[in-house]
Amino acid sequence: MVFRDGMLVAELPATSEVFVDDDAPEAGSPRITGVPHATTDLRDLVEVSWNPAVTSGDPVSYIVVSSVGGVLSVPAPAVIGSRGGPPVQRYLVEARGEWVDVGVDTAWSDTEAEEGTITIATASASFDRTDGVRLTATLEVLPGAWQTYMVRAVNALGTSEPTVAVEGRRAEPVVPVIRWQWSPNETPYQYTTLANSDQLIVDDTGIAVGESRRYRIIVGGDFNGSEYLGGGLVRGAGVGSRVGE
Asked: Residue 123 pairs with which residues in a beta bridge?
């Protein structure tokens, strides 16, 4: 005798070794269990991953009991089985209000997630020091904006319900090369890169007593000697001057 979830479903001859349960619950639309994961530590993208979808029918429990002369044996250990279903044809990931077909892999790289940002928050030059001009700047470095993701699975029998939403974002960008430049305080300004000026706080000790210079800081971009070729963030620090003893 075969019992499914505690209910008798078949009485078989003593010589039987196999039972095919044609009435087991049929498979339906796929199901994704668990919560997807979205990264927050990658600078170039957000990696979204999830568990493979379940495509089989609901699991059921079977036990087998033999009967000899009307006396039932001790039940055999229970086993779990389920009816198979068609494979996943594709996964869909919802990002920024649109569902994206990402194929059959259980991970997707969102390379269009908003990038982190770098902003030159402040830049200043001193005018009251006797040992030169102190140049000071601060940067604001932020990760990308939070992105929300959901996942659905599709097979020949239908489309799963969306997973719960999960959030991820790009990490803070790496601060690129910093350069301070100076120009005589007269137009047209012709800027020259200060030596050893790759810090946010730099002292220009090459300025003469009583001299005034115009300064700017550049974050990123391309440099060729003292020439700035473009592509970075630029902010003026104003005019700095060196006073006498």
From this structure: 137
**Domains, the chain, ranges and CATH?**
117-141+173-241 (2.60.40.10)
Contact assessment for residue 66 and residue 1, using Cβ atoms and an 8 Å cutoff? yes
CA atoms within 13 A on the CB side of 103: 5
SS3 of 136, please?
strand
Give the SS3 label for residue 217: strand
Place of tokens 């002369």: 69
CA 245 vs CA 129, 131, 176, 208, 224: distances in Å: 9, 9, 37, 12, 36
Strands (E), 113-242: 117-125, 133-142, 147-155, 158-159, 166-168, 178-184, 192-193, 201-204, 212-219, 222-224, 227-230, 233-241
Q: Going residue by residue through the chain (245 aa), what tens digit of pLDDT does each one get?
A: 899 999 999 998 888 889 999 999 889 899 999 999 999 999 999 999 999 999 999 999 999 999 887 788 888 899 999 988 999 999 999 999 999 999 999 999 999 999 999 999 999 999 999 999 999 999 999 999 999 999 999 999 999 999 999 999 999 999 999 999 999 988 888 999 998 999 999 999 999 999 999 999 999 988 765 677 778 899 999 899 998 77
Q: Say what the pTM is.
A: 0.79
| Cβ–Cβ under 8 Å, residues 2 and 12 | yes
